[in-house]
């Protein structure tokens, strides 16, 4: 492990983080809420630290697999640690734990909040809060399509051949090229949603913040009532559409922008994702209709928004699903374990893994009838290597282990069973709102201190596909 | 599929079921509670049906894999269907659904009850109720050590070489020999516990009934308060010991009886099982101590009984774990997914699978560090074939799918979230008591009609290692 390289690159990341704080600084100057100095001070501290990290470790950065893991994990954590500064310095979030939780929730595109009243925050801080989502989303697209496939994490190697960019020779040039292309797509999508939201009557500020929350599948809103605040059919429709887009593999959008529109239809994962959401809608709408006093249209409207919001792991809300019957709540709880497509900004287990897990189950039943036959798992016409399958299965087991262990720890801290379970499901899956005390109309303020740190860790674990973080705890990883 | 062979053998099973009803008939005569006629009538109906099944399908029974699956599933279901007769005929359980649920719960050694007042039942019926456990336990030992390994179900093929009996050439002679040996062990264990319980002051009747409930990891008691009724340190100790024995691979007991006492220590699964229970005890006792007003001794005593009862999937109770803090309840809920050793009468996922799932997770993390190395999963010194691992992983996925789908269906019927989840966990894992409305001091009487049938199916699915039942739903299974 070459720690110097790691610190060197984290220095660069911090520098970029500081630069990206100029946007909220601009909003702070424009709205004159008095938060400009706190943001300016944070820029200074972050930039200086970044420069020190960078300069003190003069090195020719060579990216090997181990450094890759370390940069991703420590990079994300450091970004959250410094991103928390504006909230603490201004005093909007006096506790550093709370500010760290909020920023980690932002950078991991989770959207779980400890704020009890969002609307009292100054505009600069609100913008920074939403921007962390957007930056996190940029990070995750590149991570999942350009880095993880090469680290062999959790079945992502499936996507080695599929991502755009030059041939997969060396990690560094490939990451650069792929990042450029995908960030281009990300910018186009961001621009489009912002325009469409402004067209629906939002201010530039609100439109940008909610676009950041959507395209990164984050879920931070500038309003206490989330998207319900706007009570607009049009705005809900636009956000549903862009949540769906954000939950899709961004390399498909890249192909579509190049004119290959059929890519969506050809992609097995996208088809499953689309049909799965449709099925959940057909299940949830009647449950809402029969358990809450809604009209047919309102039931479908609420079901569509909430289902898409949870499956894509965004976490925006237009309805409190805790007033639905227990079966509706159960659907939401289970959807927290699905997630978007691979290569999207969505979190959780992800559609491709769910698909292959189900296919594997079916294959094993077939094998019982033909004990001596070779029956591979197929995706489309393509045979999936058993190594990929066992890798995905192990991912699923680790995910469940962390979920169970985490829920136990949260229960130990005195949370009731459902809150404990849902808080871990919602943070590990990078969704945001859970059930019971952390439901869509509540927040994470009342979680004990230790719980907030633990949930922050789960957000990071979930966001970095678990393996990436866990590997740092293997002693062998640190040996020369 | 040779349906004639299946019906022929089920005829024999029914005949044996009728014969085994003579024991409760004897107790009915002895105690003179007025239930003798109902049992006698049930014997007649069951025996006649058995003879008709047997005689109408003159065939030279050849056991192939497909017939094996069909006999196991339909045999178990038919036993429950006819075993319900005494309860209905006498009128103790007027609804056939309830009686079927209770008997299925007996034969699957689950121990979930719809009875609100157990103690008003006549002695004959109570004895029959407990005897269904004992018969189910006999069935499951043979199934898991002599039949499933050859059907290749859920990793049980690991035990092909380990079971006593002649060399694995043909299914039929092997089943016969293995059955004889294991039933011998089962009888010895039954005899020992009955004696020890009588020594503690129980009547022969109570001793036999509770022994049946223990050695089969069933959990039916003759008392409303379950084992808490006796409030005896000695009786609790004996039952803990025999629950532990019942949760152990019976082929280990066979070797021990032959003098090879070291078999226990040598067996990796048994060691894991023992250490796992010890760990759970060390976690649970402090939770009880700090959340309930118990002394240190009472906390350990309650923890020991409840942990062993749930891990072995027995379901006897000396304490209501719903008065514990949420973390204690969470431990109990998670323990419902562990289960006893393979080849024991315990249900649920089973220790060997849990072990191999964990080992697989660790192996995949190691592979990340050495992408090109061949790292097999090992158990002791033995390399476990990847086929067995993927088979176990698929079992786990199917188990979770049924758990999730089942919980959703139960929630749809109007149960609250925790009751819905716990009722499926407790029946699929063949435990018995769950949480909330189906907790240790409650029962399944209030579950809706459709829910009782569904939970009965889950008991069967869990007991027959899922695959065995699911395969009957594959159309190809029925083709000639």
Largest sheet of chain A: 2 strands, antiparallel
User: Hey, roughly how much beta strand do the residues of chain A contain?
Assistant: under 5%
Structural class of the helix and strand makeup of chain A? mainly alpha
Q: Residue-averaged pLDDT of chain A, rounded?
A: 91
* Unreliable sequence segments of chain A: 165-170
Describe the overall structure:
Two copies of one chain form a homodimer. With 480 residues, chain A is an all-alpha fold. Chain A has helices at 3-20, 22-31, 36-55, 65-83, 85-90, 96-107, 123-151, 171-199, 204-215, 233-246, 250-257, 262-266, 268-291, 296-311, 326-335, 351-369, 386-412, 417-428, 449-463, 467-470; strands at residues 377-379, 382-384. In chain A, strands 1-2 form a two-stranded antiparallel sheet. In chain A, helix 7 (123-151) runs antiparallel to helix 8 (171-199). Residues 165-170 of chain A have low confidence and may be disordered.
Lay out the secondary structure.
The structure is a homodimer.
Chain A (H helix, E strand, L loop, with lengths): L2 H18 L1 H10 L4 H20 L9 H19 L1 H6 L5 H12 L15 H29 L19 H29 L4 H12 L17 H14 L3 H8 L4 H5 L1 H24 L4 H16 L14 H10 L15 H19 L7 E3 L2 E3 L1 H27 L4 H12 L20 H15 L3 H4 L10
Antiparallel strand pairs in A: 1-2
Helix pairs in contact in A: 1-3, 1-4, 2-3, 2-7, 4-6, 4-7, 6-7, 6-19, 7-8, 7-9, 8-9, 8-10, 8-11, 9-10, 10-14, 13-14, 16-17, 17-18, 17-19, 18-19
In short:
The structure is a homodimer of 480-residue chains. With 480 residues, chain A is mainly alpha-helical. Chain A is built from 20 helices and two strands.
């Amino acid at each position: 492990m070459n720690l110097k390289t790691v610190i060197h690159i984290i220095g660069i990341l911090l520098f970029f983080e500081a630069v990206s704080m100029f946007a909220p600084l601009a909003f702070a100057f424009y709205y004159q809420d008095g938060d400009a100095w706190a943001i300016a001070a944070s820029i200074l501290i972050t930039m200086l630290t970044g420069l020190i990290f960078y300069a003190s470790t003069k090195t020719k950065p060579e990216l090997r697999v181990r450094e890759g893991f370390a940069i991703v994990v420590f990079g994300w954590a450091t970004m959250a640690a410094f991103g928390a500064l504006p909230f603490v310095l201004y005093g909007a979030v006096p506790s550093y734990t709370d500010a760290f939780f909020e920023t980690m929730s932002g950078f991991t595109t989770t959207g779980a909040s400890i704020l009890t009243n969002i609307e009292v925050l100054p505009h600069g801080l609100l913008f920074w809060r939403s921007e962390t989502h957007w930056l996190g989303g940029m990070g995750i697209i590149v991570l999942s399509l350009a880095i993880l496939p090469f680290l062999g994490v959790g079945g992502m190697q499936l996507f080695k051949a599929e991502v755009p960019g030059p041939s997969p020779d060396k990690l560094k040039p490939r990451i650069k090229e792929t990042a450029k292309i995908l960030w281009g797509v990300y910018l186009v999508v961001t621009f489009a949603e912002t325009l469409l939201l402004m067209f629906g009557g939002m201010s530039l500020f609100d439109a940008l913040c909610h676009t950041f929350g959507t395209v990164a599948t984050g879920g931070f809103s500038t309003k206490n009532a989330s998207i319900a605040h706007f009570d607009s059919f049009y705005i809900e429709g636009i956000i549903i559409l862009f949540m769906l887009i954000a939950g899709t593999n961004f390399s498909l959008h890249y192909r579509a922008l190049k004119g290959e529109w059929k890519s969506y239809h050809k992609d097995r994962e996208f088809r499953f994702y689309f049909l799965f959401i449709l099925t959940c809608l057909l299940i949830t709408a009647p449950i809402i209709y029969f358990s809450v006093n809604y009209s047919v249209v309102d039931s479908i409207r609420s079901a569509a928004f909430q289902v898409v919001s949870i499956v894509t792991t965004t976490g925006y809300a237009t309805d409190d699903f805790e007033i639905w019957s227990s079966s509706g709540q159960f659907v939401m709880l289970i959807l927290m374990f699905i997630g978007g497509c691979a290569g999207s900004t969505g979190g959780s287990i992800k559609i491709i893994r769910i698909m292959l897990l189900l296919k594997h189950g079916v294959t094993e039943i077939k094998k019982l009838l033909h004990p001596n036959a070779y029956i591979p798992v197929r995706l489309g016409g393509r045979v999936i290597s058993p190594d990929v399958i066992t890798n995905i299965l192990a991912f699923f087991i680790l995910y469940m282990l962390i979920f169970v262990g985490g829920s136990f720890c949260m229960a130990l801290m005195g949370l009731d069973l459902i809150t404990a379970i849902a808080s871990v499901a919602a943070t590990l899956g990078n969704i945001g709102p859970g059930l019971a005390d952390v439901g869509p109309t509540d927040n994470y303020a009342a979680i004990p201190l230790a719980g907030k740190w633990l949930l922050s860790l789960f957000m990071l674990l979930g966001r970095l596909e678990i393996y990436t973080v866990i590997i740092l705890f293997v002693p062998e990883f640190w040996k020369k």
